[in-house]
Amino acid sequence: MLKLKGSIKISGDKSVSHRALILSAMSIGKTKISNLLESDDVMRTLAILRELGVKIIKSENCWYVFGNGTNGFMQPSKALDCGNSGTTARLLMGAVSSNPIECTFIGDESLSKRSMSRVTKHLEKIGAEVNITKKDYLPVLLIGKNSLLPATHRMEKASAQIKTALILAALNIHGRTKIIEKVQTRDHTERLMKYLKINFKLSKLKTGEKIIELNGPYEIFSKNIEIPSDPSSASFFIVGALITPCSKIVLKNVMLNPTRIAFLKILKKMGGKIEVEKTKSICGEEVGNITAQHCKLKGINIPSKMSALLIDEYPILSIAASQASGKTVMNGIDELRHKESDRIHSIATNLKKIGFNIRSSKSHLIIQGKNISLKRKIKIKTFNDHRIAMSFAILSIIYNNYLKIDNKKCISISYPDFENHLKKLLVKY
């Protein structure tokens, strides 16, 4: 039998890594970025920035970005390949839209099935020219202009990617851009802008909506950036420790941004033994150490209002729910249908295959916890989705590796060190 024991430092945060690269490219001067996540997704962003004329080099485990300013992107010589990264595609569409260049964005088969119109419709509204496949998908031809119009954007869907794309466009737009959010989303871009001393206004309307105001164009001066450890990556090991007997782990230097650790509240509500110790602030983000140890979990009802803050953690929360006593209901999760895979389908298909009682609809998932003793090997279909692969790799621990993951290579999309870190924590008892 195996348990999780010991302490590790999780790799750099994926969301902040993307944003650090892009904002450094739009700054003036040289930026040193430490602890950058070198995942497939982040490397796609880095490669495209190079295609856009930005000098980026690596030296002694740090990356150096020589920024060209907010209006400094150059005409690329080929299509910009975003691979599997929706963050790369959506954020960079916003960034290049206010530059007078013509860009074609392409992606892999999975990304080419994910909606891009949710970003491009806002960019068209302010004057960018867009030619989009079947009105919603990649490839996308985007012709940017340095004369885009300032406007007020009301976010219909809760999406940090759309919000950030509009912020990046606004950095080179003459005049006042307003972005109104009904539901709070991840605020890494705002925190990083504050750290870089980019002047913007953040306020709340009487309706409870959040409004971000930018008055461009901006001149951004480079500052060195350290990337905190990724809480979404930490969530896999936290759940692993909670569900695996005799386990206790400490994860160091983890980002504690409130918009990213809502899953800890959910796990604690389920009865999870979790302790959080804040230690310092890095580039506008609070960080600290998280301790998790084995305990009995109980099923709970997760409300729709939490969905925007749990979007990446639902797969591993489903694993926790499968080991909890009682029923866990996840509401308002229809956005999971539009991730790297249809994650509601991916989760339900694999848990049913193991023997769990699962019910699902377009926007909710019900998981009945159950003690299951496996006596045969079961093949887990990842649907080429990195979070599905990591989630079921964690569940496999308590089933003595009877679960066989069909494609572990996709894990490198977000967490190339996942298996190495897991091996460091796994010990026999």
Detailed description of the structure:
By secondary structure, this protein is of the alpha/beta class. It has two domains: 2-11 and 229-428, Alpha-beta prism (UDP-n-acetylglucosamine1-carboxyvinyl-transferase, Chain), CATH 3.65.10; 70-219, Enolpyruvate transferase domain (UDP-n-acetylglucosamine1-carboxyvinyl-transferase, Chain, Alpha-beta prism), CATH 3.65.10.10. The chain has 13 helices and 23 strands. It has helices spanning 14-25, 40-51, 86-97, 117-125, 160-170, 188-195, 231-243, 262-269, 307-310, 314-322, 343-354, 386-398, 418-425; strands at 2-9, 28-34, 55-59, 62-68, 80-81, 102-106, 129-133, 137-143, 152-154, 175-181, 200-204, 210-216, 225-226, 248-255, 273-282, 285-293, 301-302, 327-330, 357-360, 365-368, 378-380, 403-405, 426-428. A five-stranded mixed sheet has the order 15-16-14-1-23. A four-stranded mixed sheet has the order 3-4-2-13, with helices on one face. Helix 1 (14-25) runs parallel beside helix 3 (86-97), helix 1 crosses helix 6 (188-195) and helix 2 packs parallel to helix 3. It starts with a strand and ends with a strand.
